[in-house]
Amino acid sequence: MSLRLRPLSREEHLAFIKSRPSVSFLQCPSWADVKTEWSSESIGWVDSAGNVVGAGLVLFRQVPKMKRYLAYLPEGPVIDWERGDVRDWLDPMIEHLKKRGAFAVKMGPPIVTRKWEADTIKKAIRDKSAKRLRDVPADYTNPRALEVAGQLRAMGWLQDDTDDTGFGDVQPRYVFQVPLAGRSIEEIHADMNQLWRRNIKKAMKAGVEVVLGDYEDIPAFHELYVVTAKRDGFTPRPLGYFQRMWKAMKAEDPNRIRLYFAEHEDDVLAAATMVTVGNHVWYSYGASANHKREVRPSNAMQWKMLRDAYSLGASVYDLRGISSTLDENDKLFGLIQFKVGTGGQAVEYLGEWDYPINKLMYKAFELYMSRR
């Protein structure tokens, strides 16, 4: 395959994205506007006829006091991962990024490795037959993913498999998705577990209303988000991050991002952002209050978001990251427990891979990150 790599303009990058059924929102040019602590570049692969046949958003994190960078392609690049030798695509990318001053490249190939249906997961939990998702026989395995992994290792790409929860990567290796294509909304509702259906009904009976917000409502979302961060023990992003994300995504596409609120008797009890690229819809950030949890605002909000995704013609509603743990005593178990009730499927991606261009600097960077 004869391919050359060159920088893409923002317009060229967006045109390529629009030509695809979908790509990760982390590979859209607007994501560079969100991640202001990184510099960025759009790159494209061009065939012998001059057509753009692949693209990637590269984020560059500079080493302090040096003009050397970690080059990161979150959930990318967007190339044809399904056939041929990935070396044809990645060799010119590495060479280009080396000239840009990269000491290492990190990427997350958007290729599915395995899938587990909700019933399979529930049975494994009920039977206590496995502690981790990867120990449960998958309902679908992609042989191409194993082939790509072998090609990457042969090229010198590295993967850290020490964290079996699936949260060792920057972006989640395991996500939970509800397939929408070829199903009626009634079938989707019926495939939810009894608890989810009961909670949706309970929320409706209690008078929970789910409404759309706008830019001026982001502080209300952030207030709930800070409450959630304190409760769940993570460091919240600042208000400006979400305001910047809203502006950047709306400027790129008016339909790219939505803000939802679940309200009950003038109380805002839950909120979430929803992102759409092509036929893929993501639940990206969520938040909930500590009170009135008995009226089930989160279930009502998710059901509304899922129905809206269906109305938009989406083929999948993506609830994003889950842990791979099936241990009910693990603090991360609640993630999969909540999402499996939607009746969807757990999806494992190939995960993130590193290519050390300068091995000494890469090792020093790894040591620095491990001590943070």
Automatic annotation (TrEMBL):
Keyword line: Acyltransferase, Cell shape, Cell wall biogenesis/degradation, Peptidoglycan synthesis, Transferase
Pfam families xref list: FemAB
Molecular function via GO: aminoacyltransferase activity
Biological process terms in GO annotation: cell wall organization; peptidoglycan biosynthetic process; regulation of cell shape
Cited SUPFAM superfamilies: Acyl-CoA N-acyltransferases (Nat) (SSF55729)
Superkingdom to which the source organism belongs: Bacteria
InterPro entries: Acyl_CoA_acyltransferase, FEMABX, PG_Glycine_Bridge_Synth
Similarity annotation: Belongs to the FemABX family.
Record protein name field: Methicillin resistance protein
